[in-house]
Here is the input.
Amino acid sequence: METLGQESRSYDVRSAYPADTAIASGLYLIGWSSVAYLHIIGRYQPWLSNDALMVMFGVILVSIVVGALSVWQMLRPSYALRIDSDVLTLRKKQLKASRIKRIYVSKDDNPSIAFKPHGAWLVPNDYSIKFAEDREGERQRWELLLWAEEHDVPIVRGKAIRWL
Here is the structure.
């Protein structure tokens, strides 16, 4: 098996799914806002209680927050993934190979990659990345997965929705 050696490598990466989340949040916002508006003007008065209206406003508020955070993620500049001998560094957060429970790789053409730390229920947003969509990105992805194999970190390939 080929090894990466002990030198440090650094790659430009970006967040994995901010555009999809922003679009989904926008659709939720439009749908729930429409229902709330129809309730306010009296179209759903007979069957919709004020408690249900408060739930709708809660969903609307959550959709606004999630959408805003997703847009903020899209506008963030790319950042560096640094691979050292036994440590990954993402956005100034170090993750030792022994602390990585799994590395998830989606089945897309340009797959998303996520690092799930031990003790985490979900993959933190800062640990979900994508490489560039060119040959250089493919090589970088290959080197990262080779690093994971060298450090006995399990690699799981599947749909991204299962680990996000």
Remarks:
- Strands lie at 9-15, 79-83, 87-90, 93-96, 100-106, 113-117, 128-130, 155-158.
- Residues 18-75 form one domain.
- The mean pLDDT is 81.
